[in-house]
Design goal:
heterodimer, A: about 120 residues, B: about 110 residues, 7-stranded mixed sheet, 4-stranded antiparallel sheet, 11 strands
Chain lengths: ~120, ~110
């Protein structure tokens, strides 16, 4: 079955960077886009950006432009999301989600990765 | 950015009774191809969000037929015909018409 497995929880100090991975299985990795969404405590879900797994094209939310980089490794069926210049407001659960069901719909999702930013 | 607004914020329901959640967008989600780029997701306690409805009214694979989506343009509704205990969670609408994709603030469905 289609499955996305993310890397484990991370703790970072303010100003640092974090890189979260998302390994896909059960489908043709190159055929679908991968999105990243985060959920800060008490906040609504927030879309960060996406990558076209076929051609490496990316699109980022203006809010994260310049701080977020989404990359892919087709040989490992894995997508990465790196966020730099972290502040306490980046403390959140980060999810990857692919577009297996419909071209712009997020399905399925990974299990989430908690990133804690604290001094 | 397109702003998504849901109501109510909290929805206590009795098992077996119907439930309805409203979602409004700050601009039309109707694409020139005739599809509405509006999805519904549910996040059950301790789980990741999962897709329920896409393109306004299409049920995702495995979603029970007691869930239905309707609406067009800027006004959308998710209905549960008969709520079951397993339906507790936070329901979100999301627009996928133009980046950035944006979500509503969520509606918490709980059993009375």
């Amino acid at each position: 079955q289609v499955q996305l497995v993310q890397s484990g929880a991370e703790v970072r100090k303010p100003g640092a960077s974090v890189k979260v991975s998302c390994k896909a299985s059960g489908y043709s990795f190159m055929s679908y886009a991968m999105h990243w969404v985060r959920q800060a405590p008490g906040q609504r879900l927030e879309w960060m950006g996406w990558i076209n797994a076929a051609n490496d094209n990316t699109r980022y939310s203006q809010k994260f432009q310049g701080r977020v980089t989404i990359t892919r490794d087709p040989s490992a069926s894995t997508v990465y999301m790196e966020l730099s210049s972290l502040t306490s407001e980046d403390t959140a659960v980060y999810y990857c989600a692919t577009t297996f069901t419909a071209i712009f719909s997020l399905d399925p999702w990974g299990q989430g990765t908690l990133v804690t930013v604290s001094s | 950015d397109i702003v998504m607004t849901q109501s109510p914020f909290s929805l206590p329901v009795t098992p077996g009774e119907p439930a309805s959640i409203s979602c409004r967008s700050s601009q039309s989600l109707l694409h020139t191809n005739g599809d509405n780029y509006l999805d519904w997701y549910v996040q059950k306690p301790g789980q990741s969000p999962q897709l329920l409805i896409y393109l306004g009214s299409d049920r995702a694979s495995g979603v029970p037929d007691r869930f239905s989506g309707s609406g067009s343009g800027t006004d959308f509704t998710l209905k549960i015909s008969r709520v079951e205990a397993e339906d507790v969670g936070i329901y979100y609408c999301m627009q996928a018409l133009q980046p950035p994709w944006t979500f509503g603030e969520g509606t918490k469905v709980e059993i009375k």
